[in-house]
Amino acid sequence: MTAELHLNRTTKQCDSLRPKWTSDEARAIYDSPFNDLLFRAQTVHRQNFDPNRVQLSRLLSIKTGGCPEDCGYCSQSAHHESGLKASKLMEVQRVLAEAKKARDAGATRYCMGAAWRSPKARDMDAVVAMVEGVKALGMETCMTLGMLDIDQAQRLKQAGLDYYNHNIDTSERYYSEIISTRSFADRLETLANVRDSGIKVCCGGIVGMGEEASDRIDMLVTLANLPEHPDSVPINMLIPIEGTPLAEADPIAPIEFVRTIALARIMMPKSHVRLSAGRTAMSDEMQALCFFAGANSIFVGDTLLTAENPEEDKDTALFRRLGIEPMEQGAA
Ligand code: SAM
Ligand code: DTB
Ligand code: SF4
């Protein structure tokens, strides 16, 4: 065991003294009168963050489509007919050229995503070179490559990877309705490998997949009861993709979405809660309520991995109207 790994395990033991949340406690907060919920969330937010700053991340799909997993929401699964063209892993120099453009446009964190179940041994040299290259440009690095074993996680940590995104997506109860090619326990195992290697964890989920409110609540309870709170908690609103099993899912009511953000903020006071996929379908007013409820991170740029995101000038205008400023690197 490396010294760093030992230190992490020790820190985790201290953290285990934190009281665990029950579903009933979380439900009582989620169901409280909306004004009480928002007031509490905003109070917690102000105790831990500058309420008028939002962290900006930029995404790049370094390997698109043809994924062997069957996630019911995803355009990139080979199991669905979404019409997306699969591509090979991008060349390192192309990734770095894109990252440089993002940095010059003001991004402080660069997130690279691959449509893999897990990285193959033959891919590791290239992803390591991407992490090293993006670090050298002065940005924080994040990757999402599917499942990782401990050796892969440690190799990425050594390369300088700051964050790893790996979502639990929904409650343990609802998980098998959405994905059959891997289990909720598989997800938790990768999260443990990432945490033990010393990489910061980015972990959240998707709402609006036909789940019950109790599934949204239990998803957040699982996250809040991890040995350490994830550094970032992305809350995605389903982008319905034609050709996927969830193409016709009923959209979530905006107030329910805001309640989910507020509960995440209250249960994980120091985490960055990211208002992730689905912003193109949200009004300015809904996004403003999400920021008030404690969301303090977004993806910028007109494409997420394969789906649309608001244009840069739309976000600039929204930030100006709300008096929000981008968060500096390191503060995030
Ligand atoms: N293949 C890797 C994995 O699944 O961990 C990384 C990429 S995956 C596309 C990253 C996350 O994007 C998923 O876990 C899911 O939460 C989110 N996502 C994917 N498709 C989405 C959609 N149509 N709407 C909302 N969120 C989506
Ligand atoms: C996350 O939770 N959301 C981002 C990021 N992690 C990698 C991805 C959203 C993907 C939205 C659908 C798409 O672009 O294909
Ligand atoms: Fe593959 Fe990730 Fe999409 Fe699932 S969410 S199909 S693992 S790219």
Tag the structure with descriptive keywords:
binds 6-(5-methyl-2-OXO-imidazolidin-4-yl)-hexanoic acid; binds S-adenosylmethionine; 10 strands; 15% strand; ten-stranded parallel sheet; disordered N terminus; 332 residues; globular; alpha/beta; binds iron/sulfur cluster; 42% helix
Q: Could you write a compact summary of the structure shown?
A:
This protein has 332 residues and is of the alpha/beta class. It contains 12 helices and 10 strands.
Notes on the protein architecture:
With 332 residues, the chain is an alpha/beta fold. It contains twelve helices and ten strands. Strand 2 (109-114), helix 5 (124-136) and strand 3 form a beta-alpha-beta unit. The protein is globular and about 50 Å long. The model is unreliable at 1-14 (pLDDT under 50). Iron/sulfur cluster (SF4) binds next to loops.
